[in-house]
Amino acid sequence: MRALQNSAVSEAAIAHVDQLVRQLCWRYADRLPFHGWHHVNFVRTKAVGFAGHNGADAGVVEVAALVHDVNYLVRRNSPAAAGSDLRLDMLAESGVGKEVSARIDEIIDEAEMATRHRNISLEAQALSDADTLFKALPVTPVVLAHKYLRENDLSLRELAHKIVSEQADVHSEGFYFYNPEAAALYSRWAGANLELWQCIKEAVDDPTVAELLDAVHAVDTAEAS
Question: Could you give the angle at the alpha carbon of 133 between the alpha carbons of 132 and 139, nearest 5°?
């Protein structure tokens, strides 16, 4: 599946990064209910596939996908840049050269939903499409949204406002997905997901709904204690 003969990252380095990330994800699984190994492995698999389609360096993309969310181990609800030092240490330990490591760090920043633009690099496009697809999956708000809230200590209101503010313009401007095949396959899911979160944003700002959610939270807290 990988085309590593022309990659700037060796297969041995990729294997070592994989091992380090797996260990961190399992050691701190209680802190990563959303961004744990299930997320990392999904994004890695999809990103490598997208790299194969757009001509990006698949090895570089794979490593970027493996370490793209280590910032959540450094600080809750943080930007990708918060994980830069940890990320670079892991890459150095795995034998990735300084210049390539710096490029991988840049790719991760480029791909971040909140700041990405139409003309990011091919490697960042592949990573972005994979990470964006995870967000757009129809199962994510049902099965995983509450895990994101717990992991990042956010309220439903805060998450709804974050999703709409970061993603709506990107979607409407036509580069929610960079890969044409991904756009054709998944844009309907993305549109439905954003519409759902727009409705949630409107609902939680309604005082009566807010009162309902407070009552539900009080019952949950009482049951937990």
Answer: 120
- The angle subtended at Cα 164 by Cα 105 and Cα 160, nearest 5°, is 100
CA distances from 76 to 28, 72, 89, 100, 184 (A): 13, 5, 20, 27, 34
- Whole-model pTM: value is 0.93
The torsion angle over the Cα atoms of residues 172, 175, 177 and 183, rounded to 10 degrees, is: 70
Tokens 């150095």 found at = 92
| Rounded Cα gap, residues 17 and 9, in angstroms | 11
The rounded distance, in Å, linking the Cα atoms of 90 and 68 is 12
Contacts of 94 (CB under 8 A, 6+ apart): 13, 16, 17, 20
Beta strands in 75-117 (DSSP E): none
Q: Tell me: pLDDT of 3 over 70.
A: no
pLDDT of residue 222: 78
Task: Give me the residue label for tokens 């003969």.
Answer: 5
Residue with tokens 């797996």: 22
194 touches 164 (CB < 8 A)? yes
